Amino acid sequence: MGDFAYNFLVSYMIMQIQPLLLKYLPLFISQNDTTKEVVSGMTQPIHINEHKFLTMLEGWKDGLINFGIRVLLAIVFFFIARWVINAIIRVLKGIMDRRNLTGVAVSLINSIVIALLYIAVGIAVISILGVKSVSLAAVLASMGLAVGMALSGQLQNLAGGVIIVVTKPFAIGDFIQAQNVEGTVKSVSLFHTVITTIENKVIFIPNGALSSGVIINPTAQDTRRLQWTFGIDYDSDVDKALVILRELLEADERVLKENELYIGVSALNASSVDILVRAWVNVSDVLAVTHGFNLTVFHAFNEAGISFPFPQITVSHRKE
Q1: Is 3.30.70.100 the CATH classification of the domain at 223-303?
Q2: What is the CATH number of domain 159-216?
Q3: What is the spatial order of strands in the sheet that 223-232 belongs to?
Q4: Most exposed: 28, 114, 173, 285, by fewest CB within 10 Å?
Q5: In angstroms, how far is the first alpha carbon of the chain from the final one?
């Protein structure tokens, strides 16, 4: 039944093509006796051409069937390979967790392993589709050369990512300052480090530039020493101001008492007496203590009659 339908379809196609040839072929060849013979002959049954056409389609049929089988095998292989890759990544993540690797290392290693595995899967799929290994090797070599030349800068970023993993200048979740931006590190990929700013902007910093530049990591230590400078008027009571500042710091539970406080006069400026204050806090309390202490000192000094000076110029009139 299948052969009958197949032959019927071929015969129908020939019947549809033959009138078109009779109509348009004379437009493209010269009108002579030979032409008329050719055109006249086309009105006769095309037994030989039909046989050749059937033979050609028979060859196509076998090729299409083989290619379809290869495509199905490639699709099945791809989905199985993807499941295997996910399983490998889960196992790898468990191994890295047991070795207590940093989030930066985990992120970069995952990216590299996934990229390599999918490249291997792609090569295998192409082989399943019937591409010869020699041709595939030549294509991959050419592509590798072209991609290497086009992505020379990205290779530097890849090397920078490896340097970041080895040197560990920061970890996932650290707040860093680098390349004139600052924010919290979210992830480290093959070529970029992703940070989120205080304004919730996402910034991608190339690993090459990041690894070769200056990186400030204020959150690398558990504690930070804060520093303030308060300028008071020359007419104010400096000793009283020193006592107030110490009392305010000692009353703040966020200030670490095991570390020594420093409160002293740091400079005698033209319009103010500058008092330097230093205190230690946990990293998580840096912003809250910094801003909160400024406001507390402002209110405490106002209540104590200690004024903050404005720039002043003393003008003397000299009689000649």
Answers
A1: yes
A2: 2.30.30.60
A3: 223-232, 273-282, 262-268
A4: 28
A5: 130
